[in-house]
Design goal:
The structure holds 2 protein chains of 2 kinds. By secondary structure, chain A is of the alpha+beta class. Among the domains of chain A are: 128 residues, Alpha Horseshoe (Serine Threonine Protein Phosphatase 5, Tetratricopeptide repeat); 102 residues, Serine Threonine Protein Phosphatase 5, Tetratricopeptide repeat, CATH 1.25.40.10; 132 residues, 2-Layer Sandwich (Heat Shock Protein 90), CATH 3.30.565.10. Chain A is built from 23 helices and 7 strands. Chain A has a 5-stranded mixed beta sheet, covered by helices on one side. In chain A, strands 1-3 form a two-stranded antiparallel sheet. In chain A, helix 2 packs antiparallel against helix 3. Chain A is rod-shaped. By secondary structure, chain B is mostly helical. Chain B is rod-shaped, with a radius of gyration of 38 Å. Classes of the chains: A alpha+beta, B mainly alpha. Chains A and B meet through helix 19, helix 20 and helix 22 of A and helix 1 of B. Chain B: Keywords: Membrane, Transmembrane, Transmembrane helix. Chain A: It catalyses: ATP + protein L-histidine = ADP + protein N-phospho-L-histidine. Chain A: Keywords: ATP-binding, Coiled coil, Kinase, Membrane, Nucleotide-binding, Phosphoprotein, TPR repeat, Transferase, Transmembrane, Transmembrane helix, Two-component regulatory system. Chain A: One of its GO terms (molecular function) is phosphorelay sensor kinase activity. Chain A: It is an enzyme of class 2 (transferase).
Chain lengths: 648, 91
């Protein structure tokens, strides 16, 4: 039977290669203990002693392991405690007491989990895998191996990834999935070259050779064995050599080269014994037993086969035990011992069915599926990374597109603003231009009007002077020549009076023209003066002038309005003096319905409005009222006086 | 959002254009304000001139009426003087 080497062994066996040095190391460690170091150093030294005694003396190893454990527990050194459990577990593994070693590994695992020792946890998983592999519980073996692989992958430890993958391949091999096993072997082969691990390389060559032989490809199998032997002999890898010699012997045996096969078996037996590897030793014994059976050396054969069976049972190496039953069956068939044949046939069948039961097969399939799932998850992770990268690129492009979109919008806004700004400027310029033109026009008109007014003023000054001259000349004539003719005297008086009236009118007009606005107060003063003069000239009439105090004296009239109001009052009063024969004339300014009303009322003889044709006086009054948009109301009847109301 | 160099450049340009836009907006506001102020000044001036024109128109109208009146009065005085002259010379 070919023997596949688990990677776990690489670690365990490595120190056997230097076992000659172990005693020296142990001595030096004991010297350390004698020097009475502190507790932590003591624990470490006990652990090291346990480790180095591992293959020399199990009892000593257990002794120092237990010392390390007790001291760790006593000093609450959890790291030391976990290490002690780990070391004791390994020693139990050497003793093929896998159940006990699993218990101890679990204790170590629990502690290492609490202190988050990733590397330590992975190491324990790896050892658990080995223990379960030895118990032929492949599902548990693969589960722990995958856990270890995950941690090593996370930590990026190439060497440990390599070891774990080697274990995966070994499990495939055990499950007769040779293609998968080969695939993983070649992966690990590349890795071992990368990390320059010659021991690992030699074991991989051995495993590849085994797999090819399982696939009935003897040539390729032997070529890989040769490579393994070459590296093993060069570096003194006894454990690997023990296995490969055994496997080589099996091939030679198959080729009926019994003498040569016996030599290889013996080499394997000697090396296994040298390194105290019970499992390999049991296999070598079984192989030797079988070759003795074939060659007819039955005494030796029986002794070796039973010794091999015993050792197989001790090491709980069920594949070896199965092989032992098979070879004993063969032996007894040669010896024609029916009872023994039946006995070993039954034992073989029983063990075989227990190993390859359906449950185990299903569990293995399940674990395999889990492993495949893990691989797929890795692929998914890779795909996710690709997708994330693509998403990143897409996001970058989206960002650019968003940026360009925003740029386009902002540019549009800028363009619109510039256009609106220009439009606003044009509109403002247009409005200003129109207004400026209107202003220029009105200014021109104003200048023209001012010029006309200036000319008029000059003219009126001149007229005023001339009228004064006329009055003066007439008065000189009247008093200088002492004219007796009444008609001439009346004529001159009329001309003089009329001229004086004209001068008054001229003065009133100039007064009005010199004011931009005429307030009610101005008007009041003017009307009062006029009433006073009227009072003097018509002493038989009593004049009264009233202004309602409710009316604000700040009311302003334009010069035309003020002048026309004044003229209407003047005209009405003059008419009353001339024609009404009134005793009283009342001029009343009052407020009615938010409007200013001026009433000129007399108690004279009145007149019939229907009969009276409008003379110049009434006509002038109506025309002036119309000019200033004022309502005029004239009421009069015979012997009841006259009332003229002007509503502004 | 994820930026690469092109994205950064684009957003930098957007930032610059945005600043330009803000400047133009502010200028727009200033131009509008200045325009309103200038127009308001012109309107005020125009209203003053119109008021002045109104006053002048009133005065001119007043003068026009007065001129008519004084013309008639002067004619009347002339006529009366001629009549007086005729009386003196017994015509």
């Amino acid at each position: 039977m070919k023997k596949t080497v688990l990677s776990f062994l690489f670690v365990l066996v490595s120190f056997h290669c230097i076992s000659q040095n172990n005693l020296k190391i142990i001595d030096s460690l004991k010297l350390v203990i004698e020097s009475k170091p502190n507790d932590s150093i003591k624990i470490k030294t006990y652990s090291d002693l346990c480790w180095y005694y591992g293959r020399i003396s199990n009892d000593s190893a257990f002794h120092y392991g237990n010392l390390a454990l007790k001291l760790s527990q006593k000093t609450n050194n959890v790291v030391g405690e976990a290490q002690a459990y780990n070391d004791l577990g390994i020693i139990h593994t050497y003793s093929s007491n896998f159940d006990e070693s699993i218990k101890l590994y679990r204790k170590a695992l629990k502690i290492r989990k609490t202190i988050n020792d990733s590397m330590g946890i992975a190491s324990i998983y790896n050892k658990l895998c080995y223990a379960y592999h030895k118990k032929f519980e492949m599902d548990s073996c693969l589960t722990y191996n995958l856990k270890a692989l995950d941690i090593y992958t996370a930590l990026g430890s190439k060497r440990h990834i390599f070891l774990s993958k080697g274990n995966v391949a070994a499990v495939y091999e055990s499950m007769n999935q040779y293609d998968n096993a080969l695939k993983v072997h070649f992966e690990t082969l590349e890795m071992s070259k990368d990390i320059s691990d010659s021991l690992g390389l030699s074991n991989i060559y051995l495993n590849i050779g085994n797999t090819y032989l399982s696939k009935k490809d003897t040539l390729k199998g032997l070529s890989y064995y040769d490579k393994c032997i070459k590296i093993g002999e060069l570096n003194g890898y006894d454990n690997t050599l023990a296995i490969v010699y055994s496997d080589y012997g099996i091939i030679l045996e198959g080729q009926k080269k019994y003498k040569e096969a016996l030599k290889f078996y013996q080499k394997s037996y000697q090396l296994s014994k040298k390194i105290d590897a019970d499992v390999e030793l049991s296999e070598a014994l079984l192989n030797l037993g079988n070759i003795n059976t074939i060659t007819g050396n039955y005494n030796d054969a029986k002794a070796k086969l039973y010794e091999g069976l015993k050792l197989s049972k001790k090491t709980q190496a069920k594949d070896n035990e199965l092989k032992a039953y098979e070879l004993l069956l063969h032996y007894y068939s040669k010896r024609k011992n029916t009872d023994s044949i039946l006995h070993y046939y039954s034992a073989h069948k029983k063990l075989n069915s227990s190993i390859y039961s359906n449950r185990v097969t299903e569990e293995i399939a399940e674990v395999q599926e889990r492993y495949n799932t893990a691989e797929r998850e890795k692929e998914i992770l890779t795909q996710r990374a690709d997708i994330a990268e693509k998403e990143l690129n897409l996001n970058k492009k989206n960002t650019q597109l968003i940026g360009l979109g925003v740029l386009a919008i902002v540019l549009s806004v800028l363009g619109y603003l510039l256009f609106s700004q220009q439009k606003l400027k044009n509109r403002q310029l247009q409005k200003e231009k129109e207004l400026s033109e209107a202003l220029i026009k009105i200014e021109t008109q104003n200048r023209l009007q001012e010029q006309r007014l200036r000319i008029s003023r000059d003219l009126h000054d001149n007229i005023g002077a001339q009228l004064t001259f006329i009055i003066s000349s007439i008065e000189n004539l009247q008093y200088g020549f002492k004219i007796k003719n009444e008609k001439l005297t009346n004529k001159l008086s009329n001309i003089s009076g009329f001229t004086k009236e004209t001068i008054y009118e001229l003065r009133d007009t100039i007064w009005a023209m010199n004011k931009n606005a005429i307030s009610l107060e101005d008007l009041e003063t003017r009307i009062s003066n006029f009433i006073d003069k009227a009072d003097v000239s018509a002493s038989s009439i009593q004049f009264d002038f009233k202004i309602d105090k409710a009316i604000s004296k700040n009311i302003k009239f334009t010069s035309v309005e003020g002048m026309n109001i004044y003229r209407i009052i003047q005209e009405a009063v003059n008419n009353a003096i001339k024609y009404s024969e009134a005793k009283t004339v009342l001029v009343n300014v009052f407020k009615k319905d938010q409007s200013v009303q001026i009433e000129i009322q007399d108690d004279g003889k009145g007149f019939d409005l229907n009969m009276q044709k409008d003379g110049n006086g009434l006509n002038n009054i109506k025309k002036r009222a119309q000019d200033i948009d004022a309502l005029l109301s004239i009421t009069s009847s015979e012997n009841k006086g006259t009332s003229i109301i002007l509503q502004l | 959002m994820v930026f690469d160099w092109l994205g950064v450049v684009i957003f930098f340009v957007v930032f610059l254009v945005l600043i330009c836009t803000l400047k133009v907006s502010f200028d727009f506001y200033l131009i509008k304000k200045k325009g309103y102020m200038d127009y308001a000044l012109l309107i005020e001036k125009y209203n003053l001139e119109r008021n002045k024109n109104h006053l002048n128109t009133q005065k001119v109208k007043l003068l026009s009426d007065f001129n008519n009146s004084i013309l008639e009065r002067l004619l009347f005085i002339t006529k009366e003087l001629i009549s007086f002259q005729n009386l003196i010379f017994g015509k």
